[in-house]
Amino acid sequence: MITLKPLTPENLLSFYKWIRDEEAIIYSLSVFQAIKTDQQIEDWYAQAINDSRNSNHGIFVDGVFVGYAGISGISNINKSGEYFIFIGDKSYWGKGIGTQVTQKIVKMGFEELGLNRIMLTVSVPNIAGVKAYERVGFILEGRYREAAFRNGGYHDKLVMSVLKSEWRP
User: Fold this and answer.
1) Cα–Cα distance between 148 and 35 in angstroms, integer?
2) Which of 49, 66, 112, 144 would bridge 92 by S-S if both were Cys, CB 3.0 to 4.6 A apart?
3) What is the C-alpha end-to-end distance of the chain, expressed in Å?
4) Domain definitions of the chain by residue range
């Protein structure tokens, strides 16, 4: 069973391991590529959970903390925000958790936060992510060419979005 809960100080411990795992962060936030020390991780975490323009939620599977997801950069004027997800515990990859969490967060964005548009960017090599977003109703809007540098090379990022008027829970 997948549940979403507020992030707490206790959840920080998992991020020490996850952010240092190059495979876990390869397609995640660019800031994760630069964070190296415990203090940098703590500073990032404190900022992430205290930013009022973000809606952050811990992902729990049968009570086990496996990652976090939410909507960042929420604009109350434009009724929009940017979806993100990070499943740091690799033993939970490939189990459909990303799709289910995405559905829950999009629903929350439209029904609780009153958003009209939720967008995201996803790395082209992250095929599983692209498929999960399409299953939830995200539509391709465009492409940022060579926008990410990973493993010694550049790759494109796709821009996708879902509108409240199009979304089918």
Assistant:
1) 16
2) 66
3) 18
4) 2-163
The DSSP result for 125-148, as a single string, is T-HHHHHHHHHHT-EEEEEEEEEE
Dist CA 156 CA 145 (whole Å): 5
- Cα gap 165→148, rounded to integer Å: 31
Q: Pick the closest to residue 67 from 57, 82, 55, 53 (CA basis).
A: 57
Contact assessment for residue 28 and residue 86, using Cβ atoms and an 8 Å cutoff: yes
CATH number of 2-163: 3.40.630.30
Give the model confidence (pLDDT) of 18-40 as tens digits. 999 888 888 787 788 888 899 99
| Distances, alpha carbon 8 to alpha carbons 3, 62, 69, 73, 118, in Å | 15, 17, 14, 20, 25
Residue with tokens 């997800």: 85
CB of 72 closer than 8 Å to CB of 78: no
Q: Which amino acid is at 98?
A: G
